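Morning. Coffee machine broken again, so started the prediction first thing and wrote up yesterday's gels while waiting. Chain of 247 residues, entered below exactly as on the submission form.
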Amino acid sequence: MPEPESPPSPLVVVSLAAPQDAADPALQRRRNDRYVDAVERHGAGVVPLTPRSTASERDAAFAEMDGLLLTGGADIDPRRYGRPIRGAEEVDEARDELEAAAWAAAADRDVPVLGICRGLQAINVFSGGSLLQHVEGHAGPAWGSGPAATHPLRLVEGTRLASLLGPGRELEVNAYHHQGILEADLAPGLRAAAWADSPAGPLVEGVEASSDGRFVVGVQCHPERTESTPDEFERLFAAFVAAAAST
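Came back before lunch.
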């Protein structure tokens, strides 16, 4: 008797920086590989997109995607949230355009979204929020250039993120970002799921959709960098892939 066929892997679109445009292309490829591995090891198929992807490649990926992973990278252009540049660095307008289109396509099709670092900030900006453009002294060495700076992350009880990363109320996470989200910057339709202290005051370092429907979650830390990440974050990647599989 033939064995039953396994269900097809969910297809996750992963937005990435183009290595060809990076100062260190090899390092950028290593960064990109971490994101891809994080969802592939939980059973997802991956379609990587960069600002160099063609319009036809983007359209095909958006039409087929079961999940969207928005990853880390350069700062979002402050014009996206109606502000002049006051602390933003290395703005990447082409990346903004790619991810805004991906976000809109995901919303149109009710597709799950996970955001990491810049990806969390993109979720907030594309939902109508804004950003604190610079947090002095919050980020540590760049990845690949020294040990990660870390700080406590406080989970908000009753949120989706806390249910995935608990049962503890606090985790030690890496910090590779110089921008952040203050409470006043949070977009309508999102709720704070985790907080961290900073020289600028409490920052929202976990966000999620305020309703309990579609999976929309963002984290400010880099959980794909497993050498400086608690094991609990594997449950976040697993839940995201599971949500994509049920799309």
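The CA atoms of residues 134 and 179 lie 5 Å apart. Going to sketch it on the whiteboard this afternoon.
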